[in-house]
Amino acid sequence: DAGVIQSPRHEVTEMGQEVTLRCKPISGHNSLFWYRQTMMRGLELLIYFNNNVPIDDSGMPEDRFSAKMPNASFSTLKIQPSEPRDSAVYFCASRTGTGVQPQHFGDGTRLSIL
Amino acid sequence: EDQVTQSPEALRLQEGESSSLNCSYTVSGLRGLFWYRQDPGKGPEFLFTLYSAGEEKEKERLKATLTKKESFLHITAPKPEDSATYLCAPADSQGNLIFGKGTKLSVKP
Predict the structure, then answer these.
(1) Which residues in chain B have Cβ-Cβ distances shorter than 8 Å to A91?
(2) 3-state class percentages of chain B: helix first, strand second, coil last, to nearest 5
(3) Measuring CA to CA, which of A114, B4, B44, B95 is 20 to 30 A from B21?
């Protein structure tokens, strides 16, 4: 079975540029999560969706960050404009929705903002 | 405020040398506690879910236990392939995971 698929795996861009990260969740999963991982802060939840609807975006650091889920099989996380402090590994995870089920993670996008 | 602390930050073991990793937590409305393994350049891989104090789960050389304030991941006779970062993540009342910073385990042959 295909797991969570993220693209690109690596992204290097200059400060001020727009960055779009993509995620395809596991088929049949109805919750999707975006996380950011850094050495200093570990894994932090940015936003999550349930049935394509954003439920909690309190972890989004500022207005430069936005996320969408136009359908059950695709989500994007966009940063505009990007800044060097946004450099991190961004993970997407999905979960089947009932009860407290485990989240399954993609292999992340390593983002470097120069 | 919900908090999760994992210790030690790093642990070096010889192959076959058993040990335990600790996860201390303060989480309101705990709905369960998850353990993940993360290899370099990969996403976290799900290992266990524990739902109530006293519960234990086992998988190969790993055993996870849960109390009201802590969880332990016991590793028995580890092998080099067990080297990874182990992440603890209690779930809050909304079911959201709060991750600790992990314990980086190195097992030398």
Answers:
(1) 43-44
(2) 5, 55, 40
(3) B95
